[in-house]
Amino acid sequence: MQLLQFSTSHYCRKIRLALGYKRLDYDVDNLTPGAHTLKLKPLTGLTTVPTLLPQHPDAPEAIGDSTQILKFLEIRYPDPPLTFGDEALDRQAWMLEDWFDESIGTATRFVYYDFRAGEGKSINSSWFSQLLVRVVRFQYSITPAAVELARDRLNLALSYLESRSKERPYLVGDRLSVADLAAAGLLSPLALIPHYRRNYPWLFERLVAVHQQCDEPLPPGLEETGSIEKA
Predict the structure, then answer these.
(1) How far apart are CA 45 and CA 129, in angstroms?
(2) For residue 85, how many other CB atoms are within 10 A of its CB?
(3) Do residue 187 and residue 97 come from a single domain?
(4) Are residues 116 and 207 in the same domain?
(5) What is the pLDDT of residues 40-78, one digit of tens each?
(6) Which member of 26, 184, 195, 201 lies 3.0 to 4.6 Å from 210 by CB, making a disulfide possible if both were Cys?
(7) Are 182 and 96 in contact (CB under 8 A)?
(8) Could you tell me the CA-to-CA distances from 29 to 2, 40, 53, 163, 180 in Å, in that order?
C-alpha cells in the first residue's frame, strides 16, 4: 500500500492517522507540488492529495479524496473500527467528518497560509517555502476578506468542539471514529499559530492524544515534547 501525499497537507495527515490507527503497513511518496498533477490525474482523474494506491488485486488501482479513502479502509480493514455498526452513530460520525472535510479543513488552510505569509514567515523563510505559500494563496484565492470569514467559521467550530469535549472524550460514541480523525488531522496546522495555542489548550491536548493513539508523529508545533507548551 502506498500513500501519495504532500508531507505538509493536513488532509494527508488525516489519512495517516487512519492508517496508523488500523496498524496498516504503507509506504509514502512525497510528491512535488505542481508536478504532482502529472502523476495523479492519470490515476484518479483528480489533481489533489491524498491518493491511496492499495496495491491489491481485489482493490481499485488508486483512490483519491480523503473521505473515499477512509470509506475504503473501513470496508477493507474493519478492525479496529472507526465506525460503530449503529446507523444513527455512523450517520453522525460521517456527517461530522464531511463537515470537517468540506468546511473546517478549508478554513484552517486559509487561516494557516495567511499566518505563514505574515507573522509566521519565520517558520520557514526559505525562498522555496515562501514561493509555495504564495502559490497556495493564489490558487485558493486567499484574500483578507476570505481569511476573516474563515476565522469566523473556525471560531464557531471550536466553540462547538469545546462544548462537546466537556461532555465526552470522543465526538461520537465511546471511542475513536472518523470524526475524531478528521478533527485531529484538519485542525493540526493551528498548532503553529500562537493565538490558537493560547486560547484553545484543550484542542491541542486532544490532538496529541489522537496522534498518540494512532501512532502518528505529532504535527509541527507539538512534536518537541508531546505536551502542550505555552506559546
Answers:
(1) 27
(2) 8
(3) yes
(4) yes
(5) 889 998 888 999 999 988 989 999 999 999 999 999 999
(6) 184
(7) yes
(8) 7, 12, 10, 38, 25
* 105 and 162 housed in the same domain: yes
77: left (phi over 0), alpha (psi -120 to 50) or beta: beta
Cβ–Cβ < 8 Å for 197, 191: yes
Does residue 96 sit in the same domain as residue 125?
A: yes
Higher local confidence (pLDDT), 230 or 26: 26
List Cβ neighbours of 170 (8 Å cut-off, separation of 6 or more).
Answer: 176, 177, 179, 180
Query: What three-state secondary structure class fits 170?
Result: coil
Per the CB < 8 A criterion, the answer to whether 217 and 223 are in contact is yes
The mean pLDDT of the chain is: 93
- Grid cell locating 203: 484542542
Task: Clarify whether residues 100 and 193 are in a common domain.
Answer: yes
Residue 231 lies in a domain: no
Q: What are phi and psi of 161, to 5 degrees?
A: -65, -35
Whole-angstrom Cα distance, residue 24 to residue 196?
32
Boundaries of domain holding 145: 87-213
